[in-house]
């Protein structure tokens, strides 16, 4: 049941990305290009998503369990550290270079677009490197400090 | 600054954004999870029992979306300027950055901002600023 709900959510999410224009890197770069001919569309995507999201997450926050009876697993961290800022900035550079972020890249891969396949492969490699660095470098250092 | 009126799609983007919001609502209200694509993918790299099926199902939904759109009569026509080398570098940076930064456009930009999370506000500011700076360099300084 959970997996079926997740599939439906993923499908609708992907359709939303296509309808909104997020799966077109040209449009994403047009939004980030403030000094050129600016396409403000992406602000409308975020506006539409957050408008719906605000009420949904408020409802989720009030509920202890999901409508399917499972646990509500919401993030609880509130600290702002260098990792958060530096990591997000590195992501932003990659986003600006290609115009793809993770969701739209997966959708474009689903459409059989070769460049998206290459991008997703490199993105997964980046995630594997993060996991390895976390296990081999960061976690031992944290343990040494503690 | 001049507006690119030929590509500007306020209504389609607002509607598509609302669909994204409804999808995120479905995932949190039914599965209790945040619709953050980088986090969902990242969790598939270090596999944990009982935490795999919903992630694979969500990714399968994303991959199936273009086929559903084709059935509704709309083809995906992305404009991709980046060459192969650039795509590789960009993908690597996106993979590393989103994992270190605990999220991407969906997890921080949509879900986090909807939850009024201070971490997501800072993260969204950082990736937007870095993206804008990168496009300024590649489109205006290096041309």
Shape of chain A: globular
Considering DSSP H and I runs of 4 or more, what fraction of the residues of chain A is helical? over 70%
Q: What distance lies between the first and last C-alpha atoms of chain B, to the nearest angstrom? A: 18 Å
State the domain count of chain A.
1
Please provide the ordered H/E string of secondary-structure elements of chain B: EHHHHHH
Total helices of chain B: the number is: 6
Instruction: Based on Cα principal axes, name the global outline of chain B.
Output: globular
Largest interface: A-B, 115 and 114 residues
Structure, explained:
The complex is a heterodimer of chains A (146) and B (143). By secondary structure, chain A is mainly α. Chain A has one domain (2-145). Chain A contains 6 helices and 1 strand; from the N terminus they run ααβαααα. The longest helix of chain A is centred in the last third of the chain and has 32 residues, at 114-145. Chain B is mostly helical and 143 residues long. Chain B has one domain (10-141). Helices cover 69% and strands 1% of the residues of chain B. Chain B has 6 helices and 1 strand, in the order E-H-H-H-H-H-H.
Topology:
The complex is a heterodimer of chains A (146) and B (143).
Chain A: H1 2-20, H2 25-32, E1 37-38, H3 41-62, H4 82-98, H5 102-110, H6 114-145
Helix pairs in contact in A: 5-6
Chain B: E1 2-3, H1 10-31, H2 37-42, H3 53-71, H4 84-100, H5 105-114, H6 118-141
Keywords:
heterodimer; A: 146 residues; mainly alpha; 6 helices; globular; B: 143 residues; 69% helix
What would you say about this model in short?
Chain A has 146 residues and is mainly alpha-helical. Helix content of chain A is 73%, strand content 1%.
